[in-house]
Structures are given as C-alpha cells and as structure tokens.
Amino acid sequence: MQFTAVSAGQFAVGTRGEIAVPAPARTSAGLHRDTRVAIVAVPRRQVLIVHPPALLTGLLAAHYLATGADQP
Fold first, then answer.
1. Does residue 48 contact residue 3 with C-beta atoms inside 8 Å?
2. Which structural domain, as residue segments, surrounds residue 14?
3. pLDDT at 49 > cutoff 80
4. Which of 4, 29, 60, 71 has minimal Cβ neighbours within 10 Å of its Cβ?
5. Can you give the pLDDT at residue 72?
C-alpha cells in the first residue's frame, strides 16, 4: 500500500501521528484494527509505503532461504 503527498488530498497525518487508511484498502491488505505495520518513507518522492506483517514475513523468509542463513 502506498500513500503519496498531494496538496489537495483528503487524508492527513493525525495529531498522534496516525494515518487513516480507507476500509477497502485495509481489507485488501489484510489489515485489522490495531494491526501493526512497517512504514517506509521515501522523502524525495513524498511517498509512504505501508508493509503489512504477512508481506514482511514472506520477504524475510525468502531472504534467509536465499542466503542460506536458515541452515545451522
């Protein structure tokens, strides 16, 4: 999921640093209330990329398998 800064956007970062994610986007990403996510900022592109837990788990597993780090 990706958020891009636009001056006419309808969502903003809240006073507590939260980002409102529309329900259809949450559903398609498998996010539920209080789901923790990793957010990566790309300042020069004014983009925030949200990574749900399942994606991170898959990426890390693939990385460790590819590097052989999963072997004793």
1. yes
2. 2-67
3. yes
4. 71
5. 60
Q: What is the number of structural domains in the chain?
A: 1
Cα–Cα distance for residue pair 4/72, rounded to 1 Å:
42
Per the confidence metrics, is the pTM higher than 0.70? no
- In DSSP terms, 19 is beta-bridged to 13
Within a domain: 28: yes
- Beta bridge partner(s), residue 42: 47
Is 72 inside a domain boundary? no
Is 80 exceeded by the pLDDT of residue 41? yes
Which of 7-11, 53-57, 63-67 is the most confident on average? 63-67
Pairing between strand 47-51 and 2-4?
Answer: antiparallel
